[in-house]
Amino acid sequence: MSNAMYNKMWHQTQEALNSLLDKESEKMMKPQRNQVFIFQTLATFYIKYVQIFRNLENVYDQIVHPQKRILIRKLLDGVMGRILELKNEMVELELTEFHYFDDILQDLKLVPQQLDIPIPKYFLKERLEVIKEREKILAQLLADSGLGITEKKYPVKPIPLEEAVKLIQVAERARQGRLRAMFMKQIYLQEYRAKQARLLDERVADVGTAALCIQKVWRGFHQCKRTEREREEEMIFLGMNPPPLFNEVSAALIQADRVTHLRDEVQVKHEEEYRDALVTIKDDLKLIEGPNIKENLQDEIRRWFIECRGLTGTFPDYPKVEEGGSAIIFSNKTRQQVIEDIIASQEEEEKDKKKKKEEKPKKGKKGKEKKERKEKNKDEGDGWQMSPSVFLHMMQEGNNVYKDLWKNKDESWNVPQGYDPELIKEDKRKELESEIRLQVDELMRQELKNLKLAVNREKELSGKTGSKK
Which of 17, 162, 172, 245 is the most buried (most CB within 10 A)? Predict the structure, then answer.
């Protein structure tokens, strides 16, 4: 199949996964008491996740876009983990490892074969070199220990010369005897044919009788062949015998296998190009955009210094490296939002001081509220509720990335499905910014320290001049 077909299959699988995640979050919020309903829900989710896994595994094996493969691999691992979680929930619910999905399969219009979970092909592909190396090591260990499979050597016993001559004579006499017997048989057959020919000459030849005899033999032979052919066709129709080309590999399968190998080669090629591009694009960004990023970060932090001093009257404390440095201040926020956060934090500090004074008389009310919460939790705890999932968050993250990045992306320019340089630039730009930010933080900490010293010196000088007056 083509790249467009596998992309379409991926989009359809993502739609199914998105709807399944929505349904799962809706149905598993409230505790349930009906065991039949619980099993039906778990089994339905299990079957649908198996279908999604089969499609994702096929897409991951054949798609050649390296950046899409990273996301599909993340989703595939999450779906496999979720299947194991649902299986464990069903085992704990029914106390058996064998479940019956006949009704659910009939409702979903599926056959039991569609519940088979294939071993992902990348398990073998990604570990092929390791497996080959392991086989070499095992073969070497067996050879060194003498336990390897070796050809059995038969010992050659020497015999005397007279006995060897007797063996040769016996073999030669036997050969001559076989030739003499064959010659005598040929003589006998010649004599027999001549005798039969003399007997036929003596009979009166009848052309009509001879033709009838030939026709009879031919019709019998023809009908025998026809009967055999009809019997073979009947057995094939009944399914008792395989068709004539059953053991032969069709040309379509040979072509499909050839295309699969070609796609594997293209996958490896695109993956190598993608890894090389990660390094080259980052180096280019460092040379071209690195100085501008550094200058913008310094200007942004300086404005923060000035605005904070204008609002509070003092310079702010620079965040420590352990806290994240300046990244914690400007993470997904504009300068105006940072200023509003500073004002809000100051107001909260004042409110906290007032609340501490008023907290003492309210302890009795809090005790009653705790008791009411415990009673509510007891009432809710009577029903069954699914244990928290480790893999749902992973699948939701991957699904959100797909919606934001790949769902409506125009890829008409990328027919061979190579890497997308713009996506690499976005990721490497963030990585480069975090590296440059560490350097800028060191410089701006020193600059902030110098500013504070300068302001304190000015205050001391102004205080001295005021006292002299």
Answer: 17
Residues in the chain: 469
Comparing CA positions, the residue from 327, 323, 272 lying closest to residue 301 is 327
CA 335 – CA 340 distance, rounded (Å): 9
Burial bucket for residue 52 (CB in 10 Å: 0-12, 13-18, 19+)? buried
Distance CA 442, CA 448 (A): 10
Flag the least confident range among 133-142, 270-279, 451-460. Answer: 451-460
Distance CA 421, CA 152 (A): 61
Note the pLDDT tens digit of each residue in 337-381.
Answer: 656 666 666 667 666 666 665 654 444 444 545 455 555 555 545
Give the angle subtended at the CA of 447 by the CAs of 442 and 451, to the nearest 5°: 150
The residue among 130 and 1 whose pLDDT is bigger is: 130
pTM above 0.85, yes or no: no
Return the amino acid letter for 256. A
Q: pLDDT at position 452, please?
A: 81
Burial 388-400 (b: 16+ CB within 10 A, else e): ebebbebbeebbe
The closest of 33, 47, 158, 160 to 111, measured between CA atoms, is 47
| Nearest alpha carbon to residue 11 among 397, 426, 409, 423 | 409
- Per-residue confidence (pLDDT) for residue 415, from 0 to 100: 86
Whether 64 and 266 have beta carbons less than 8 Å apart is answered as yes
Question: Which residue, 287, 328, 279, 336, is CA-closest to 311?
Answer: 336
Domain ranges of the chain: 3-118, 162-199, 209-244, 258-356+419-468
Torsion from C-alpha of 457, 459, 464, 465, nearest 10 degrees? 110
Question: What sign for the dihedral angle of Cα 54, 55, 60, 64?
Answer: positive
The rounded distance, in Å, linking the Cα atoms of 278 and 422 is 11
Provide the pLDDT confidence category of residue 230 given band limits of 50, 70 and 90. very high
What CATH topology corresponds to 3-118?
A: Methane Monooxygenase Hydroxylase; Chain G, domain 1 (1.20.58)
C-alpha distances in angstroms, 254 versus 35, 58, 213?
50, 19, 51
